[in-house]
Structure formats: C-alpha cells, structure tokens
Amino acid sequence: MWGLAELLGARARLKSAPKGDGRPVMILPGLVNTDRSNLLLQRFLRRLGYRVEGWGLGRNLGARAIGREGEVLMQRIAALHRQTGEPVTLIGISLGGIMARIAAHRAPNSVREVITISSPYAGSARATNVWRSFEFFTGDRIDDDHVRAQAALAAKPLPVPETAIWSRSDGLVSGEICHAPDARAIEVRSSHIGVQWRAEVMLAVAGILAGR
Q: Which residues are in the AB hydrolase-1 domain (predicted)?
C-alpha cells in the first residue's frame, strides 16, 4: 500500500522518464505470481513507447510453467523475436529474473539484454526466506541436480548486457546475492513484495532501457 501511495506522489517524475524506441520487452513474474502482478510496470513501459508483453504462461510455478529445461519459455521468447524482428529485452522479478538469465544463456541471439529485479541468482538459495516456498510450489528441491545446474547457469556472466536492481532492505532474499560483483547493479530501497511497483524501480528500468 505504501508503494502504491508513493506512485501517486511520483507521477511527475514518472511522466518525465525517457521515451522508448518500440523494442520488444517481456516481463517475467516472480514465484506464484502471474502477469497481473506486473500490470503497473507493463503500462508504464508501454506509455513510454515500448512493445511490452507478459510471459503468458500463467502462474510462475517454476518448471511446471516453463518446462523442465525452460523450453516453453524459450518458445515464447523466440515467437516474440520472430514477430518483431528484434531480440527481446527480458525483465524478470525475483524467480522470473533467474529464468530470464537462463534464457539469455540458452538463446543469446533472441535476447537483447536482461534486467533482474530482486532476483537472488548470485548465491545460495538458502540465503533467502523463500526456498521452502519454492520447493512447495514448484515441486522441485533446491538440492536436485537439475535445479543446481540451472542455478549455476543463471549465476554465470551473461552473453548479453545485464543489470541487476536490488535492495538491502528486501526482507525475503539477501540483497547481496541479487547482483554479481562484476556486473552492473543499481541499488534501491524497497521490500521484496511489490518491488516492481516502486517508482524508484520503474524509473531505474526506464533509464536502463534508454541506455543511461
């Protein structure tokens, strides 16, 4: 509620965000969330001039949503790439950011850049307060071999530009594992829940997309 109230007070700043160039952008939701959780960010970026899509895969339940090897998500990204003739910018919130990083490794020609928001990709899953929820909702265990392999892939430097937006006051995941030392990172002040609704985060995303 505080974040939504903050948005109302930041309308002038949001209106002054740099305009977009029409490139395709796909936003990936966090654990158990759907595209509805990102509607404010979608609308903001559309108003700036980007072609923004949700991931269209329903609730984010890990492999149950994207396929064991992420093949369903890869098909969605490839389809948007074909439709627009341009590689896709991926913006992922929390678990969605980890998935975006894996997708960029597996299909770098279809991905223009990756922006993660509060995504704990750079450390142990146990450095979060949600790893048990991950296991419950996805049916995967963090110690499973394929989950470990995917986590290791997500942690590797990307073959495309990457930016991590993170917060020390996250509360659910350690902010220190939401960015890598050798990659671009932007620190914000926010809790984990609703981070994508914060004006500071939305303006940071707009700046990244504009090359700032």
A: 86-134
